[in-house]
Design a protein that fits this description.
The protein has one domain: P-loop containing nucleotide triphosphate hydrolases (Rossmann fold, 3-Layer(aba) Sandwich), CATH 3.40.50.300. Helices cover about 55% and strands about 15% of the residues. Helix 1 packs across helix 10. It starts with a strand and ends in a 6-residue tail after the last helix.
């Protein structure tokens, strides 16, 4: 198995690159999807969140009220740390299981782990488990504009989201490959295609 860690700041175009690599045949594992799965109703993760943050973050149907929780954690760094302490271990366990399943199905699989918090994980030195780290990068102004235009956030909300993540400098410091997504969609996809062509191919 060849394991790629794919990361980038919010609205950087990371998902576009991940989907393109999946079209080429990579196994795409999305950390955001896993993060939702570990807090579904009935999970220990959701129970722990309700205990820590109170009933206001639980929707009437018993699911996690993401808007209510988001309003808390984006305004309070300590709350964000507490949430990460609940979700990250569960996500890590699920991720390792999916990696093992992908390798079992195809020992030569190229797996793309699409993970916004790769830099945060690297502080625990988890990033050494990757064969290649790819950072999708766009300027702060480009990402703020995308958040406003595509997600309907106010400028203040967009800046808050960016400030809650690692800096571009921290992400670029661990990059083996950087994809510049400041340009057009086509330009970003061409870089993703070039990346795919550069990856090692096993002798079958």
């Amino acid at each position: 198995m060849y394991l790629i860690g794919l990361t980038g700041g919010i609205a950087s175009g990371k998902t576009v690159v991940a989907r393109r690599l999946a079209e080429h045949g990579a196994v795409h594992i999305d950390a955001d999807v896993l993060a939702r799965q570990v807090v579904e109703p009935g999970t220990p993760g959701l129970a722990a969140i309700a205990e820590r943050f109170g009933p206001s973050v639980i929707a009437p149907d018993g699911s996690l009220d993401r808007a209510a929780l988001g309003a808390i954690i984006f305004a309070d760094p300590e709350a964000r740390v507490a949430l990460n302490g609940i979700t990250h271990p569960a996500i890590k366990e699920l991720t390792q299981r999916l990696f093992a399943e992908a390798a079992s199905r195809d020992p030569n699989a190229i797996v793309v782990y699409d993970v916004p918090l790769l830099v945060e994980a690297s502080r625990d030195r988890d990033y050494h488990s990757f064969d290649l780290i790819v950072v999708v990068n766009a300027s702060t102004e480009t990402r703020i504009r995308r958040l406003i235009e595509l997600r309907g956030l106010s400028r203040e909300e967009a800046v808050h989201r960016l400030n809650s993540q690692s800096t571009d400098t921290e992400r670029l410091a661990i990059a083996d490959v950087v994809i510049d997504s400041n340009g057009t969609l086509e330009e970003t996809l061409r870089q993703a295609d070039a990346l795919w062509e550069s990856l090692p191919r096993p002798v079958r």
